[in-house]
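Lab notes, practical 5.
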Amino acid sequence: MKDQAISLEIEPLSKLIKYDKHMNAIVFSLVSKQFSHIPPLMHPDIVYTIKGFLKLYSELLFLSNYPIDLEILCNTLVERTHVIAEHSTIPILTEEFFAIPYPEVLTPTNDQLEDLLIKTSKEITDDTIQESIVLLKQNIYERNLPNAVVQGLLNNLRRDPHCKWAAYLYELYMEKTQD
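Output from the prediction step:
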C-alpha cells in the first residue's frame, strides 16, 4: 500500500481536500440555518448525511444512464434530510471530525522520506536532479541548508514528473518539522 501511495498525484488530492473543506463549511451553514431548532450536537451527523446523499446521488447522475428529473431529486433529498434530521436523537460525530487535517496522514517520517528520495533517485538520470536529491537527503538530518536553497532544490525536483510526489512530501515534512 505504501508503494501505491508514492505514485499518487498529489495536486488532484489536494484540490479534493480543499473543496471538501469548503463543502463542509457550506453544508454546516445550511444545517445551522435550516435546523436551528435541532440540538447542535446533531448538526455534524446531519451534515454527514447530506454529504452522503450528495455522493450517492451524484454517482446515479454521472455514472449511469438512468433518467432523473432533477426537481424531483432535489425535493426527495430535502424530504429525506428533514426526516432524518427531525427524528434522529443519537449523535455519533462531532465538529472535530470535520476538522481533521488530511495532509498530516501524508507527512512522512525522516526514514520514509529518505527511502523515497533514494527510490526516486534510482529512476532519474538527470545530474542536476540527482545532486538536488543528495543535498535534500543530507538536509533531512543535518538541517544545514537555508530555506531558499531547499526551495530551489525542490523546484528542480518538481520539473520532473517522477519527482513531484517526493518534492511535495519533502515540503510537508519541512512544514511539520519546522519547529
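Observations recorded by the TA: Confidence is low (pLDDT under 50) at residues 1-7. Residues 107 and 173 are 6 Å apart (CA to CA).
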